[in-house]
Specification:
By secondary structure, the protein is mainly α. It has helices at about 1-75, 80-125, 130-150, 175-225, 235-245, 250-270, 275-295. The protein has one domain (about 40-150, about 165-295).
Length: about 300
């Protein structure tokens, strides 16, 4: 009997380290799952900041290009009645306001999408995941409404069919249920961001060509070629022209960042979004911000 007790004690002692190791592994796995949703939500904040810079560039370029068009056409409209010239400005204002409204809606869509990512993190981390899931549902409803507005706008574009996502296993049942219910729809919303940023980028480049052709001819080349002394502002104007020539890159980078978000969300849903994927995503998002910093005027130039 003593021998049996000794053998039992040995068995317990021998397997104790293994039990501790297994518990540690399970605990670490749970922590990793919580961490990846927290990291993705943090990346969503960075993505929205980057997207805002690209949308700001697009809005500024749209206004400046429209101004350039009006100024260029004004001499040819001089013989018209003043009421017709007034109508010209009013019509241009209306069209431009519609374009700026689309940019605002795209910005709002991105911010609500960011809130949804934060809601997922809340479900993963919360001690009351069902309540957090209810909040996620409300956020998704708001996102869907904005999505409908964007798709029906002039910038609306068709989101191509996406492969159905296979949801991984998660300890928090409410989280897994949320992903099974809405992961495909959220993936489509991220894709909508990518598609619309492509539309915004193409329009931005067109606007820039109008604006910069006028600037280069009238404010850079002509003053330099003239016999008169160069204006004191010529160097600053030329720098502004050269920087603005590259500002279309910000929208291209935003398209790549949205595509990276799409890929990262797929990894998140499948429970394989690790620290390496997080860092790679931040690099793609950071490219937009880097371009914005390069294009920003130096202190005192604004």
């Amino acid at each position: 009997m003593q021998a049996d007790r000794s053998l039992a004690s040995f068995a317990v002692g021998a397997f104790a380290p293994l039990s501790v190791a297994l518990l540690t592994l399970v605990s670490t796995g749970c922590a990793a799952r919580v961490t990846q949703f927290h990291d993705f939500a943090a990346a969503g904040v960075s993505y929205q900041k980057a997207a805002d810079t690209a949308l700001d560039d697009a809005g500024t370029a749209a206004i400046r290009a429209n101004n350039a068009n009006l100024v260029k056409a004004r001499p040819n409209r001089a013989a018209l009645p003043s009421t017709e010239r007034e109508d010209d400005v009013i019509q241009h204002n209306g069209l431009l306001q519609k374009r700026l409204a689309i940019l605002r809606d795209l910005r709002r869509h991105g911010r609500v999408l960011q809130r949804y990512f934060q809601a997922l993190a809340a479900i993963a981390e919360s001690k009351a995941p069902e309540a957090a899931a209810a909040a996620a549902g409300e956020t998704f409803t708001a996102l869907s409404s904005l999505s409908t507005t964007l798709k029906s706008s002039q910038a609306g574009a068709v989101v191509p069919p996406l492969t159905k996502l296979v949801v991984g296993s998660f300890k928090v049942r409410a989280l897994e249920d949320e992903l099974k219910q809405r992961a495909d729809a959220i993936a489509a919303e991220i894709k909508l961001q990518e598609v619309l940023f492509k539309v915004v980028g193409d329009t931005l480049k067109t606007d820039l060509r109008v604006q910069l052709n006028t600037m280069e001819t009238g404010q850079v080349i002509a003053p330099f070629a003239a016999d008169a002394a160069l204006p004191a502002s010529w160097g600053t104007t030329r720098e502004t022209f050269l920087k603005a020539s590259a500002s279309g890159e910000s929208a291209d980078a935003a398209v790549r960042a949205a595509a990276a978000m799409q890929e990262a969300f797929t990894a998140l849903v499948q429970n394989r979004f690790d620290r390496a994927a997080f860092n790679s995503l931040l690099d793609d998002i950071g490219e937009v911000l880097t371009i914005a910093e390069q294009l920003a005027p130096a202190p005192g130039e604004e």
